[in-house]
Amino acid sequence: MQLRAADGASAAQGLKLVLAAERDGLPFLRLSDGEGRTIVAVLEPEDARITVGRAPACDLVIDHDPGVSRVHFELERVADGWVVSDDGLSRNGTHVDDRKLDGRLRLNEGTVLRIGGTAIEFRDPRDGETIAATRTIGLGSLPPVVTPAQLAVLKELCRPMVVDGAGAPAPNQAIASTLFLSVETVKSHLKVLYERFDLDGTPAQGKRSELAARALRSGLVRRADLE
């Protein structure tokens, strides 16, 4: 497996890295590191099995996310494709399209695996639509990297919209009370989250609702986690 990292955290730098990987024609994994940089892990022809987790011995190490287990899941080459399996390796499970993985699953172009707060997208340039799709959706298909504390704030922000069917996200005071934080701390987390979700230029009146909507659409906050 060959690891490549973008030079910086901008979307343009990440997209450049992904397009270069697509031109090479090999399947790869795409994710973000703890600093928001795009990481590409190219699955080379000689690779038969890939382990993913926090442990230094893993082939793909994700050590910035405490929700990732030491060995979280394995990828295995089967014929000309790849299969993912968890089989009880992780504490929190591996989710695919908001469903917890049970057993083994063959990966298709665009499959997104979620472990802890990290999203990992499987890409296969052998699919003729891959490059066109990347240029269309850019890097927006993967949620930004957030800390566990920021994720907790996001979940509480979204909770009324999912559980109560309310049209508005939770106010700062309600989030602070639930998480035993000060209102100022909640505001500080939200300020960073606005930046991570590219909402700095959004009018203040609709910024909170848009943040909650993007968090839910991206899968970073799962409805199943709130119900």
UniProtKB/TrEMBL annotation:
**Which species is the source of this protein?**
Patulibacter medicamentivorans
The segment(s) forming the FHA domain are: 50-101
State if Signal is listed as a keyword.
no
InterPro entries assigned: Cell_Proc_Reg/RNA_Proc, FHA_dom, Sig_transdc_resp-reg_C-effctor, SMAD_FHA_dom_sf, WH-like_DNA-bd_sf
Pfam families per the UniProt record, alphabetical: FHA (PF00498)
GO biological process, alphabetically ordered: regulation of DNA-templated transcription
Q: Which domain of life is it from?
A: Bacteria
**Molecular functions per Gene Ontology:** DNA binding
Name of the protein: Forkhead domain containing protein
Keyword vocabulary terms for this entry: Phosphoprotein
